[in-house]
Amino acid sequence: MNPIADAIRAHIAETGKSMRALSLELGQGEKFIADILSGKSKRPTPEALERLSEKIGVDLRALPVNRQITVADMIERLRKDPPTDWSASRIRGTISALGWYAKNSSAAGPEHTILDRPSMRSFLSGTTAAAQGVEPNSFSTYASHLRDVADLVARTGRPLQIRDVTGPWRQAYDQMSEHGFTEWDKGLAGPFLAWCSGQGIGIRDVVPETFQSYLNMRLTSGKLTASEAKHRKVAMEVHRLWNRLATQDAYRDLGMRAVASPFGDDRNRYGMPPELLEPLLAEFDRHVVPWVRGETAPDGTPVDVILDRLSPVQVTSGNCKLAQAKKYIGKSSRTGRKDREARLSAAGVLLSRAQWQYNTVRKARAGIKSLAMALWSQTGVVLESIEELTDPELAEAAATALDEMTDEEGIGSSYVESVLKKVKKLAGGYVGRSAEEVMAISSLISDFKPDFAGIAPRNRRKLQQLTPERIDRFLALSEEIVAEVNRQQKSRRSGGRKSRKRKSAEGNQPRFDADPAAQLEVALAHDIMLARAPRTANLLCIDLAHHVRRRADGGITIELPPDLTKTKMRLEIPLGTAQSKFFDAYVEHVRPALMTPVNAGNTHLFPARRSPHGHYTMLTKKLVDTVHHRVGMRIHPHLYRHIVGWIWLKEDPNALPAVQKLLGHKRLETTMQFYAELDETLTLQHWADQLERKSDERNSRVETKYRGRGKPAGDNSAAA
Fold first, then answer.
1. Are 680 and 654 contacting, i.e. CB atoms less than 8 angstroms apart?
2. Is residue 587 in a domain?
3. How far is Cα 228 from Cα 614, in angstroms, rounded to an integer?
């Protein structure tokens, strides 16, 4: 399965040399060749591969890492030489899954069905248990076994890695640490730089399409368990890292230049020009990251330099043996270590417990960026340094702006609090602000700390604005949009000679311009949100090629696989009869008006406008703007889930289990936590309504009693 290993075996068979002898001839360890042939070593270093090529007379560097493997090949391997850590039942299940895959994915048969990630990914994401006529549990088991097979195929070889690379691309990687880039940055850059080298791309030849090609490669050979959205996110992060590298003089000397993004809708929601953020983020990357990782003092002095400045360990014992031992232990002794840590801490160096992990660094950078962008969008103020960011008054203004913006975006009520905690750490340790200023930031954290369990108070206040009239308008929003567009289309088709000619040429098929098509796109999104209240990411990722199923009754069901959902469970969104007809009409007549030569290949239900891939990012903003305009409430997309639950509970306070299933909560306790206060409020309201009905019934009986005695109807003064 490894062409390099096959070439070596052919050479050994021809010459009669042993694996050990060939290894020693190359100046390597005696197990060098054996490890390659057994698969333990997937690909030698470039230098070793060059010497091996000269020895056997074959350019091994030009060979691919692995060749195509068929279903039959894999079944034979599992029967004869299965992985040692696989149980017998796992082997049998995987062989069964391979047979099922060969039967249902193509008509070629096991001998000609190639096991490659693109085909397996397309098959698993493009079908469902119902479509294959199997039980959901059986389908999940088959999918799990096939993912194991994909990993097994990948282990027969490995892609080109940065350690295999020499020349300018390796130089670009090696000098990242020298210029303040983190290990996380290097881990992101390494695969891309190695891929560029393997493709024969020069540093000066990198263009926007290079990053799109890199994404296509990841979708082709990347982890099968990672979603397309995950691979796309990584490719976008690589592009942003490239442009950060291009700001360094050393990388510009290598020929690196910033390039535009090839990814559609790659913009920040605040509209802040990237160059305004550059000084703040550059300081974070070059100075803050080494400090929070414990590599430098706040002033940038490396820890090694600080240690060299510390006075050596003093040996005061009169015992020669003890003195010699202490001298030998030196700075590594327990007491010496405590003393050294105390002095490092006094110099402002963060010790292990206080350091940030790389994931924390990434989140902190994103949070600081959000603070700066939110402040700029609301006030026009640009934060240019960490010192400005940690000014209590500027921090308060930025936090307030971010809180308002996150309310619109539905990020979460604890987001601002978590970002401010990072700001507080930078204020006290990195910038060195006074105790009073740090205390002021602590007060800010308390102000933005959520003091609730379940629905945020601000969201609860939003729900309390849902009067019966607003509920009716909210539920009828899609119908109103469709009716208005139909009236516009009817007026356009009957308006004048030119329109009559166009109608004759087009027949009876409706034709939509971009504006009414965009309105109908919002209406369909509203229908889907009402049907199951999916999370925003799930609404936007719906793909016509993979996620839409026609039911036996002719209706539409949208099915999203577990890897795309928060709960890691399959999400089904069944549409009613009217909504299914609207869905079909949208796909056939409306969606084409949104397509252009740029996004012609896009298969998303709500396609990006400037890319053949991805969704229309601005759809959720247009949706909430439409709700605000037509219903009179300013909401954020995530509030749809609460609104649906609120409306149902308003009709039936005992509907919590049903609301749990509707919203896709794994546990009823989650639903109860979110709706406990609402449930109490609605129950009390129902009791008040019950009391009012009882009062009306009593008044009605009294009225009937007096009417029988000749008392004028409606006069209850005697009863008083």
1. no
2. yes
3. 9
* Whether residues 480 and 603 fall in one domain: yes
Torsion angles phi and psi, residue 571, rounded to 5: -115, 120
> Do the Cβ atoms of 278 and 203 come closer than 8 Å?
no
Q: Which domain holds residue 80?
A: 71-154
DSSP reduced 3-state for 607: strand
What is the rounded CA–CA span in Å between residue 292 and residue 677?
Answer: 41
Count the neighbouring beta carbons within 10 Å of the beta carbon of residue 708. 8
Q: Which residues of 327-354 are buried (b: 16+ CB within 10 A; e: fewer)?
A: eeeeeeeeebeeebeeebeebbbbeeee
pLDDT band for position 115 (50/70/90)?
Answer: confident
* pLDDT tens-digit series, residues 203-259: 988 988 888 888 877 776 665 555 667 788 888 889 889 988 888 888 988 889 888
Are residues 285 and 431 located together in one domain of the fold? yes
Q: Say how many residues make up the chain.
A: 720
- Alpha-carbon torsion 547, 550, 556, 557, what sign? negative
Residue type, 100: W
| Residue range 153-176, pLDDT digits in tens | 755 445 677 877 888 899 999 998
Contact of 489 with 600, CB cutoff 8 Å: no
CA 652 to chain centre: 36
Tokens 């308002």 found at: 404
143 lies in the same domain as 180 = no
Residues 355 and 217 in one domain: no
Output the six-digit token pair for 330. Answer: 């030196």
| HEC profile of 171-191 | HHHHCCHHHCCCHHHHHHHHH
| Type of residue at 83 | P
pLDDT 10s digits, 611-630: 787 888 788 888 988 998 89
Distance CA 275, CA 268 (A): 13
